Amino acid sequence: MYELRNNWDKGVNHPDHYTGHEMECIDEMIAVFGERAAYDFCRLNAWKYRYRADLKETHDEDMQKADWYIRKAAELKRKLWGRPMETH
């Protein structure tokens, strides 16, 4: 069970296709495009995952991915503006 959970968690938090380079994809995006662009990307990507989750067989994983992007957006927002992300 732990191996299954660990593999599923890795697919959400650190998928191989995002970590196969020297830097993880999100870290490289921050380095290249800046924290503000990465913040906007995270918010939009979270929206995308939630928007289509009910239409896919991977609903639960997509919702977890959306949560990951929301947490990353909140982290970046604190760095940029010194306050947590509002929830509406």
Task: Report on this structure.
The chain is mainly α and 88 residues long. The protein has one domain. The chain has five helices and no strands. The chain has helices at residues 2-13, 16-19, 25-33, 35-53, 59-81.
Mean pLDDT: 84
SSE-based structural type: mainly alpha
Broad shape: globular
Spans where pLDDT lies below 50 across 5 or more residues? 1-5
Largest sheet: none
How would you describe this structure in keywords?
globular; disordered N terminus
Produce a short descriptive summary.
This protein has one domain (22-88). Helix content is 76%, strand content 0%.
Q: How are the elements arranged and paired?
A:
Layout: H1 2-13, H2 16-19, H3 25-33, H4 35-53, H5 59-81
Helix pairs in contact: 1-5, 3-4, 4-5
